[in-house]
Amino acid sequence: MAITLPPTLTQQAPHGPPAQNRLTESRGAGRVARAVTAAALAVWFVLPLVPLALWVFADRWSYPAPLPQEWGTGNTESAVAQGAVPAFVRSLGLGLLVSAVATPLGVMAARSLAFHRTRWSPLISGLLFAPLALPAFVAVFGLNVVLIRLQVPSYAAVILVLTAYALPYTAYVMRLAYGGHDIGFEEEARTLGAGPVQVFLRVHLPLIAPALARAAFLAFLVGWSDYLVTLLIGGGSLVTVPLLVASAASGTGNDGVVAVLSVVALAPPLALLLLLGLKGRRRGGSS
Fold first, then answer.
1. Which of 211, 200, 241 is nearest to 94 (CA)?
2. Phi and psi at residue 217, to the nearest 5°
3. Which pairs count as long-range contacts for 85-93, CB under 8 Å and 24+ apart, including other chains?
4. Per-domain boundaries in the chain
5. Calpha distance 30→51 (Å, rounded)
């Protein structure tokens, strides 16, 4: 008895590359597109920094010369003479202290909002993010009067106010992290006999470490790059790198000094950002 196959089975397969090859080609094209996009973004961000780097070592650069006519370290010496080194130390200490205070507060606030919600949670969230909604100039003027009457030292007052401005960022980053955090790992560790300290150090902290690093970085940026709070609350006695940059930029003929101070202002955040990127790539490669 003859068996008749359906026409669809007897038709010859269409000529062309296999599906796997087409998939490989699409992935290759995606890699090329990502590489081109990354290169374009790198050029977009790095290109404006080239004249800045040239000004650092330009003792004389007059129009219309495309490059400096005289090279040297005069701008760096002028910046150091204007107090760049003490200002750098103050800014670094301010950023680290604000990060050290605002990051754990943001962690505690985010964890409480994520796992211990009450009817007051929306109100607490609103209070946490209120500093971002208030005009900084108005808020700082009001707080300055209160802090002066309470006789709070200027350095402590600056840290207190900047911590309030950094707290929304740290709380938001950690709130997103706790939104995808599985608390079952901690409960299982307790079931196996781990104490609270062991659970925190060996289970909880490694799980939130990436978000914790991002939150600390944002808090550091708030303390490092602030101008208005440091100027008004500090009363001019706390001279940081942003204050030096603004002071030098307000004059004329200070292009080289402004360039040196701008590079000083960019160096720590850029170094931390690169460090976070390298840590993230290593963690992703090891997973």
1. 241
2. -65, -45
3. 86/239, 87/239, 87/240, 87/241, 87/243, 87/244, 88/241, 88/264, 90/238, 90/239, 90/240, 91/223, 91/224, 91/240, 91/241, 91/242, 91/265, 92/224, 92/268
4. 27-71, 74-286
5. 33
Residue type, 73: T
Residue 106 and residue 176 in contact, taking contact as beta carbons nearer than 8 Å: no
Lookup: tokens for 159: 């840290």
What are phi and psi for residue 71, nearest 5 degrees?
-110, 150
Cα 247 to Cα 232: distance, rounded to the nearest angstrom: 15
**Pairing between strand 58-60 and 70-71?**
antiparallel
pTM higher than 0.85: no
Torsion, Cα of 284, 281, 98, 168 (10° steps): -60
Q: Which CATH superfamily is domain 74-286 in?
A: MetI-like (1.10.3720.10)
Q: How far is CA 26 from CA 20, 22, 36, 150, in A?
A: 10, 6, 15, 65
Could you report the per-residue pLDDT of 171-225, keeping only the tens digit for each? 999 988 888 877 788 888 888 888 888 888 888 888 888 899 999 999 999 999 9
Q: Is-contact 167 176, C-beta < 8 A?
A: no
pLDDT value at position 47?
84
CA atoms lying within 13 Å on the CB side of residue 241? 25
Q: Tens of pLDDT along 110-131?
A: 888 888 777 877 887 888 887 7
